[in-house]
Amino acid sequence: MTKTYTYTPMGVCARMFEITTEDGIIRNVTVYGGCHGNSQGVASLLVGMSVSEAISRLRGIDCHGKGTSCPDQLSYALEQAL
User: Fold this and answer.
1) Contact indicator for 20, 48 with CB cutoff of 8 Å
2) What is the domain class of 2-81 according to CATH?
3) Are 73 and 11 in contact, with CB atoms under 8 Å apart?
4) Measured in Å, how far apart are the chain's first and last C-alpha atoms?
5) Domain locations in the chain?
6) What is the DSSP letter of 50?
7) Under 8 Å CB-to-CB from 63, ≥6 apart: which residues?
8) Burial, 36: exposed, middle or buried (Cβ in 10 Å; 0-12, 13-18, 19+)?
9) Mean pLDDT throughout 2-23?
10) How much is the pTM?
């Protein structure tokens, strides 16, 4: 079953994530705002990965001592997608 989720991150440059999953696999990630090149790169690497694997890889990544980052916030968005 294909599902699409939106998530508003907190404490980072990105304004919104849109994630499409199918049977626990990430099919598409779109990041609105943030560092365009980095966001595109992370989104591209996640396609085809299981949601649980992506969460474990992204959780806890910090950006300049903020206590979070776009990848970390993406892990929370993916957690909601489960």
Assistant:
1) no
2) alpha beta
3) yes
4) 12
5) 2-81
6) B
7) 12, 69, 70, 72
8) exposed
9) 96
10) 0.93
